[in-house]
Amino acid sequence: MGALKKANRILLAFFVIPTPPYFCTMEKKKVMLGLRLPTDPRLVEIVEGNIEEILTDHAYCEQKATTNAITNIVRFPEFSEMVEEMTRIAQEEIQHFGMVHQELLKRGLTLGRERKDPYVHDLATFILHGGGREEQFVDRMLFGAMIEARSCERFRLLSERIADEDLKKFYYDLMVSEADHYTTFITLARKYGKGVDVDKRWQECLDFEASLMEKYGKRETIHG
Ligand SMILES: [Fe+2]
Ligand SMILES: [Fe+2]
Question: Nearest ligand to the C-alpha of residue 146?
Answer without folding.
Answer: 2
